[in-house]
Design a protein that fits this description.
This protein has nine helices and seven strands. With 203 residues, the protein is an alpha/beta fold. The chain has a seven-stranded mixed β-sheet, sandwiched between helices. Helix 1 packs parallel to helix 2 and helix 3 packs parallel to helix 5.
């Protein structure tokens, strides 16, 4: 791909990734849990390109240093590794769980939320679907909005537009969702300023 503005070839579309989003999630998690000093980050090697993965990890590690948080990176390559991974995270006394974007992790969101609840690990994810299932907090691009905008691209191409001339669009709508029911179950008090900033609070 030549650039996001002019991708060239026969490729275009929308992106929901960004290293800055990974860092923002850690910052929001720290705001929700000010006393957290050790945060485990679950990531799926090979989920994206080496460059994208490297940039997300580097941005998150830099944010952890700024926030004075110890970041524990935990690899999960398949769904059957989740139970072991979460048990390890809990045994090493992490204060919270940060989830990196991954199709596999998204597909296994119920198992992840259930395991995080079992081990009493407040979690931050990239999609509201995790928070709806009981994850503590989620921040990321609105998948519903991206799907709607994708449909407009399909329409343009069907009407004769060349993909190479259509810029790869970045997200414009982001969602912060907080599950207050989960916070109460964990005995956590979420700051009012964070609740006010949320697009949705699940009670």
């Amino acid at each position: 791909m030549a650039s996001l503005a002019r991708p060239g070839g026969n490729v275009t579309g929308l992106t929901f990734l960004g290293p800055e989003l990974a860092a923002k999630r850690l910052d929001l998690l720290k705001q929700a849990l000010p006393s957290a000093s050790r945060i485990a980050a679950l990531w799926h090697p090979g989920a994206f390109s080496d460059r994208t993965t490297r940039e997300m990890l580097q941005a998150t590690e830099a944010a952890a240093r700024t926030l004075a948080v110890e970041l524990q990176l935990v690899e999960v390559r398949a769904a059957d590794e989740l139970d072991r991974a979460l048990a390890t995270v809990a045994s090493e006394r992490a204060d919270a769980l940060l989830l990196f974007a991954s199709a596999m992790l998204f597909n296994e969101r119920k198992q992840i939320v259930d395991l995080a609840t079992k081990h009493r690990l407040p979690s931050m994810s990239n999609a509201r679907e995790f928070a709806e299932l009981g994850g503590l907090i989620a921040y990321g691009a609105s998948l519903t909005d991206l799907q709607r905008r994708s449909a407009t691209y399909v329409d343009k191409i069907l009407k004769g537009a060349t993909p190479a001339d259509l810029p790869v669009e970045q997200p414009i709508k982001f969602e912060l969702v907080i599950n207050l029911k989960t916070a109460k179950a964990f005995g956590l008090t979420v700051a009012d300023k964070l609740l006010v900033a949320a697009d949705e609070v699940i009670e």
